[in-house]
Input
Amino acid sequence: MNPSCLTHRLTEDERRTFNETGLLQIENALSPEQVESLTAASDRIYEAKVTGGHNPKQALFYPNFIPDDKLFLDLVDYEKILPKVWGILGWNIYLYHAHLIVTPPSGQERDNKTFGWHQDSGRVNQEMESHPRPRLSFKVAYFLSDTSEEGRGNFWVLPGSHLQDELQRPADGQGQPEGAMPVLAKPGTAVFFDRRLWHTASPNWSDVTRKILFYGYGYRWIRTKDDMTVSDLWQGSDPIRRQMLGWGVNCNGHYSPSDDDVPLRVWLREHSPDEAK
Ligand SMILES: O=C(O)CCC(=O)C(=O)O
Output
């Protein structure tokens, strides 16, 4: 990790925004060149899936995409983003989940049906006793296509809803919850969203295919959510990247880490001691 990444640490404004709304939008997190090459890598996956029988009219949800291209791997510890990730969760973290979603034009007429609103993490929301629910993890969504206009299969959110356990959905199944809004994001934008934030995908009524890479970060004592094969990448990765890819000395170290389990902490002790506590 190059210490120059510290210029991208979470600011107090960003912290406040994320704590209060459950959402943080970082524009130009990716350069146009990165967007172009990541898009080409995503398109290769999409085309292979379509050749393999995926219906090109339906969204492709493709987990465990990190091993498919070095460009995806390089975002796991991306210098413009990882400092903000540890700024929110601390150093005992890893990538517990990742997926690529490609949403082609639906070819359907616009309608007013209520979207599929949810919080992330499935049974966690029933089985943890606390209120509000604990944060535990969040995702960073890298937007590769232009969803700066509504109707393009936008990611929708209800800002501030991360502290509420229930969502009031329209009883007649029409329209969206009060206060809901589409995230309008240009290519290259990174959107952080708290796993508790009520959110949803939406149909793509436009003629622009929507492409997003989702990176989920959580504590090292959370199990992986995908059938990840990223352990194949441990060899050849530097220690902090290896930590992000789920490496550890032993199982106990996920709960009570030694320095060997968490090279990020060792690095922070040297370069940003306040964040190593
Ligand atoms: O595709 C989207 O916009 C929503 C993705 C989503 O719901 C998720 O990653 O949890």
